[in-house]
Design goal:
heterodimer; A: 490 residues; Amidase signature (AS) enzymes; eleven-stranded mixed beta sheet; 11 strands; globular; B: 95 residues; mainly alpha; Histone, subunit A; two-stranded antiparallel sheet; 2 strands; 4% strand
């Protein structure tokens, strides 16, 4: 049996039944990473020694009844923008060279308290700014489904590590689609929860009003279990909701669920294979007893400019902390303190990050603030209202996740605006703060995966999980695996 | 062209970023294209709409004023590129 191909819950069950030890499953996972990741570059850091040591302790904890989670002992990995105590945390940036936090992010801490074994840190677009995982200082991550295809981004490492069975599940973060779009490109399942569901403490901030951590995995059951562990109030994040951790009782039943199909999401620019697969999925739901209806949502056209103005504005403020003094990269040669700031930042940040910081500085600058930043906050209210109206009629909205399947590497790297336009279906969800889930729903003519986006109103995670679970009971797209390269080709 | 040479230098100053000449030309072009695209927002009337910072109502979060241990100084300095005598070390800032 190939252990690595198990789902997280299957692995957890074997551990619980003492069919395998935590150390053995961890060793198998690490060996698999050593063999596989040369070809995909998912991991910035692999925690070889720490993981084995941790596995030994967790086995003891399982044996003495300390760890009772169904995922206790199951190895996992997290996006490299979440702080991990004593373990390199880079956000895919040169400017965090050598940065080893002295504390864990809350999401990681909660997983560890439930007995998770951290295998390592996953590659990403620098500071989560990108949709291809090509802007990482640590090189691009590769999509296993096609030659020279991007995995999407920014949580590309988190998606490919799951798709290639290098980890049982992973954590990603989603500011404008960074969990959902790589799930779609890599044929895996994931959710961006309602803003404030998972604590952002220890998540390296990109745009604080939009950032949200979420799980990525092989199926809905795994993703639901992980979300139930990491969700719930955290006093260290003032925007985290004062709610209990989520609990899910998954059942295959969508009878009577009202589903809306926003026609504006199916217009110009949408790949025909993607369109057909998503509409097929809607028919599937109909055949399972849901009521599907088309509606208009013309506010879509404002989503991208609104998102990029707000996200860049917040980024320019958040990333001002990287100054070469407190942690990370410091330029070796400088004249005075101001020069040290300029050089450390100019040498430490990549071009896409610089561009977004500068756009942010511009839209916040005196004379342009009202025309851009304030305007975007007003349009955000319009977009939020459009979703509120839609959810008066529908339990969920079905749509594509991205206009295309995985792009060729380099295709959008030289044209930032073109890359931004690819975020059309995902960004408005973050502006409205609502939850949105992605499940595989087909393949295009080239065999590249297509993801169905299921979006609901705030705190409707249970509804989304049940719909996604029901879909996976009736389809097998999530069970398909890419053919992996296991040795480095010259 | 909102972003001219003067403006790109100005926002570089605000952002504490110094671009090389070729980077600057490139940034100018790309940022202009992006800002132009953002101007689509001018086609929507928002005169009666209040700016929304948070998608959900947020209110101040208070906690009890209890004395609790703070972060440890050595921990905070752990990652400092330059440090001296328990403090971050920076170049001389005034004579």
């Amino acid at each position: 049996m190939d252990l690595n191909k198990l789902t997280a819950l299957e692995a957890g069950k074997m551990i619980k039944n003492k069919e395998i030890s935590v150390v053995d499953i961890t060793k198998a996972a690490l060996e698999n990473i050593d063999k596989t990741d040369k070809n995909y570059n998912c991991f910035v850091t692999v925690c070889h020694d720490e993981a084995i040591k941790k596995a030994e302790n967790i086995q003891k904890g399982i044996d003495d009844g300390t760890f009772t989670s169904p995922l206790a002992g199951v190895p996992m990995a997290v996006k490299d923008n979440m702080c991990t105590k004593g373990i390199l945390t880079t956000a895919g940036s040169k400017i965090l060279t050598g940065f080893k936090p002295f504390y864990n992010s809350t999401a990681v801490e909660r997983l560890e308290n439930a007995g998770a074994v951290l295998l390592g840190k996953l590659n990403m677009d620098e500071f989560a700014m990108g949709s291809t995982t090509e802007t990482s200082y640590y090189g691009p991550t590769l999509n296993p489904w096609g030659e020279n295809r991007v995995p999407g981004g920014s949580s590309g490492g988190s998606a490919v590590a799951v798709a290639t069975d290098q980890t049982y599940y992973s954590l990603g973060s989603d500011t404008g689609g960074s969990i959902r779009q790589p799930c779609s490109f890599c044929g895996i399942t994931g959710i961006k929860p309602t803003y404030g569901t998972v604590s952002r403490y220890g998540l390296l901030a990109y745009a604080s009003s939009l950032d949200q951590i979420g799980p990525m995995g092989k199926n809905v059951e795994d993703v639901a279990e992980v979300l139930s562990i990491i969700s719930g109030h955290d006093p260290k994040d003032s925007t985290s909701f004062n709610n209990e951790p989520l609990k899910f009782n998954l059942e295959n039943n969508v009878k009577g669920k009202r589903i809306g199909i926003p026609l504006d999401y199916f217009g110009e620019g949408l790949d025909s294979d993607v369109k057909n697969s998503v509409l097929e999925a809607a028919k599937k739901f109909e055949s399972m007893g849901a009521v599907v209806e088309e509606f208009n949502m013309s506010e879509l056209e404002y989503a991208i400019p609104t998102y990029y103005i707000i996200a860049c504005a917040e980024a320019s403020s958040n990333l001002s902390r990287y100054d070469g003094v407190k942690y990370g990269y410091c330029t070796p040669n400088f004249d005075d303190l101001t020069d040290l700031y300029y050089k450390s930042r100019s040498e430490g940040f990549g071009m896409e990050v610089k561009r977004r910081i500068m756009i942010g500085a511009f839209v916040l600058s005196s004379g342009y603030y009202d025309a851009y930043y304030k305007k975007a906050l007003q349009v955000k209210a319009v977009i939020k209202r459009a979703f509120d109206n839609a959810f008066e009629k529908y339990d969920a909205i079905l749509s594509p996740t991205a206009p295309t399947t995985a792009l060729k590497m380099g295709e959008n790297l030289s044209d930032p605006l073109k890359m931004y336009l690819g975020d059309i279906y995902t960004v408005s969800v973050n502006l409205a703060g609502i939850p949105s889930m992605v499940v595989p729903c087909g393949f295009d003519k080239q065999g590249l995966p297509i993801g169905l986006q299921i979006t609901g109103k705030a705190f409707s995670e249970s509804t989304l999980m049940n719909m996604a679970y029901s879909f996976q009971q009736e389809t097998d797209y999530h069970l398909k695996k890419p053919v992996l390269k296991t040795s480095k080709e010259a | 062209m909102i972003i001219d040479d003067k403006m790109i230098d100005y926002i570089g100053e605000l952002a504490r970023l110094k671009l090389k000449q070729e980077e600057k030309e490139n940034a100018k072009n790309e940022i202009n294209k992006i800002i132009d695209y953002m101007d689509v927002l001018n086609t929507i009337d928002t005169s009666n709409i209040e700016a929304m910072s948070h998608a959900f109502p947020v209110k101040n979060v208070f906690r009890k004023d209890d004395v609790m241990p703070s972060k440890d100084r050595d921990d905070i300095l752990l990652n400092a590129p330059n440090k001296k005598d328990g403090a971050f070390k920076v170049p001389k800032t005034f004579e």
